[in-house]
Amino acid sequence: MVKWSRFNIASIVFGFAFLYLPIVLLVIFSFNESKLVTVWAGFSTKWYVQLLHNQALLDAAWVTVRVGLISATVATVLGTLAALAMTRYTRFRGRMLFSGMIYAPLVMPEVITGLSMLLLFVAIGFDRGFWTLTLAHITFTMCFVAVVVQSRLLSFDRSIEEAAMDLGATPVATFLQVTLPVIAPAVFSGWVLAFTLSLDDLVISNFTSGPGATTLPMKIYSQVRLGVTPEINAVCTILIGIVAMGVLIASVVSRRREVQRVKDEQAAFAL
Amino acid sequence: MSKFGSAIFNRLVIIIPYAWLTIFFLAPFFIVLRISLSETAIAMPPYLPVFNLADGISGLVDKLGELSVANYVFLAGDALYTNAYISSLKIAVISTIATLLIAYPIAYGMAKAPTTVRATLLMLVILPFWTSFLIRVYAWIAILKPEGLLNQLLLTLGVIDEPLIILNTNWAIYIGIVYSYLPFMVLPIYSSLEKMDHSLTEAALDLGCTPIRAFWRVTFPLSMPGVIAGCMLVFIPAVGEFVIPDLLGGSETLMIGKTLWNEFNANRDWPVSAAVATILLLILVVPIMFFQHAQAKADGEGR
C-alpha cells in the first residue's frame, strides 16, 4: 500500500478548510452584536430574536417547508419508479430518451429548466403559485432520487427477488416485501436529498412561483441584494442547522440499517 | 390474474415516470422553441401568437406561417448577447480547470487515506453539497468585500498595503464557482481513484518508474472517467450560472444566465429570453449528451 504522504494530508486539510471556513465564518457572525458582518463586537442572539418577529420571513419559511415535504415525497415515489425502470428493464422503446431525461436535469442550468417550465404553465393556462412551484420541484428533484436509488439497485442481489417470485409472490408483493425493505435506506436518503434541494432552490422557484408563494431562498435573495446583514446570517445558520441535522439522522439510519443487514445475512448463512 | 397484474405493474413502473418527465421536462423545451419564434407583445402572456389547439390543423398551419426568426436575428445583431455567450464559456472553462486542479489533490489524498477515515472524509466532502447554494455564495460576500475578512487578514499580516478589490470582479466569480462546485469534482475523481487497482502503481514503481512518472503514466489515465465526469458536472451548470455572477460579479460581468434572468424578470421580454435559452441549450447539448453517455457507461460497469 502506497503510504499517506504529507502532501496528501496537506491537500486534504487545505481543501476542507476552503470548504468549511466560509460557512463557519457565516455562522460566527450571525451571533455578532454589531450590525456589521465583518467586525466582531461581542456575542449576541438578538438577530435570532428579531427573526421571530419577521412575519414575512416566517411565512416564506412555511411555504418552503410545505413545498419541500410534498415535492420530496412525490419525487421519491417517481424517482424510485424511474430507477426501477432504468435498472430492471434494460430494453424498452425510448430507453435512450428516458435515461437522457433522467441525467439531463442533473446538469441543466437552472435558468433553462425554470424558464421552460414557466412557459409550459403559461401555455396550458395554469396560474402560477404554490402548485406550479411544487410541480417544478418534483420534476427536478425526482432525477436526483432516481440516481441515488439506481446506484443501490445496481448492487442489489436479484436472486432474493427471484426466490420470492418462485415461491408465488406477485411482482407487487415482491417489490413491497422484498425489494423495498432492502433499498429503503437509499430511498430515504433520496427523500432527504430531494427535500434539501427543494429547500435551497432559488432560480427555478423564482420562475415558477407566483404571488403568495414566496419561498425562503427567494426572500433571502431579495434581502441579500440590499446588503449583508447579521439577520440573514441568522436565517442561514438555522437552515444549515436543519440540513446538518437531517444529514446526520439519514446517515445514522442508513448505518444502523447496514449493520442490521449484515447481521441478517450472517444469521441466514448460519442456518 | 397474477400474469395480468404483473404486466400492468411492469408497464406502470416505466410509464409513470416517463410520462411525468415527458410532460414537465421535455415538452417545455418545445414550448420554449415555439415562443422563441414568436413576436413580443404587450399583453399577458407577453407574446404573440399564442399556440392554440382549438384552431385545429389548419390553424396550426396558419400559425406556422407566422413564425418569425426575428428574435434570433436580434440576438445575433446585438453584441451584448454574443459577448455574454463567449464570456460565459470562458468563465466556465477557466473555473472548471481551476476546480480540477484543486479537487484532484483532495480526491487523491482521500483515496490514499487509511480505510478507517475514508468514510468520514467522504461525508465531509458531501456535507457542504447539502447546504444551500445561495448561502454558500452569500458567505463569500463578507469575505471578499474591500473591508471584508480576507482583506482584514492580509492587511494585519502585512501581506498587502491596501485592500484588494476582488468582489464584483471576475475573480470573485471564479472563486465562487470553484467553491460551490468543488464537491462535484472531488466525488467522481475519488470514486474512480478508489476503485483503482493499487498493484498497478506498485508494479510501475517496481519496474523503476519515479513516483511522479508512475502517477502520470498509470494513475492519472486510470482516473480519466472520474475527471471527465467531474468536469462535465462543473462545466455545464457553470455556463448557465446565475446566482454566482449576480451576487459576486460586477456590473460589467457578462454571463448568459444573468442576461436571461434580466431579460425575463426586468425587461419582461419572453420571446427573447426563450431564444436566449434555446441557443444556450444548443451550445450545451453536446456536453450534456457526452455526460449522459459517460454516466450510463459508468452505471453499466457497476453491474
TrEMBL record, chain A:
Entries under InterPro entries matching the protein: Bact_Polyamine_Transport, MetI-like, MetI-like_sf
A Pfam entry, by short name: BPD_transp_1
GO cellular component, one term: plasma membrane
A biological process term (GO) from this entry: transmembrane transport
Record keywords, A-Z: Cell membrane, Membrane, Transmembrane, Transmembrane helix, Transport
Ranges annotated as spanning the membrane: 7-31, 60-85, 97-124, 130-149, 170-193, 232-253
Broad class of the protein's primary localization: membrane
Keyword Secreted: no
Topological category with respect to the lipid bilayer: Multi-pass membrane protein
Presence of the UniProt keyword Transmembrane in the record: yes
Chain ranges of the ABC transmembrane type-1 domain: 61-253
Subcellular location: Cell membrane
Domain of life: Bacteria
Family of this protein: Belongs to the binding-protein-dependent transport system permease family. CysTW subfamily.
Name of the featured protein: Putrescine transport system permease protein
From TrEMBL, chain B:
A GO-annotated cellular component: plasma membrane
Subcellular location: Cell membrane
Pfam name, any one: BPD_transp_1
Limits of the ABC transmembrane type-1 domain: 85-291
Keyword terms of this UniProt record: Cell membrane, Membrane, Transmembrane, Transmembrane helix, Transport
One GO BP annotation of this record: transmembrane transport
Domain of life: Bacteria
SUPFAM superfamilies hit by this protein: MetI-like
Main location: membrane
Membrane topology value: Multi-pass membrane protein
Residue spans crossing the bilayer: 12-37, 84-107, 119-143, 171-193, 214-239, 270-291
Family that this chain belongs to: Belongs to the binding-protein-dependent transport system permease family. CysTW subfamily.
Protein's recorded name: Putrescine transport system permease protein
Organism from which the protein derives: Rhizobium giardinii
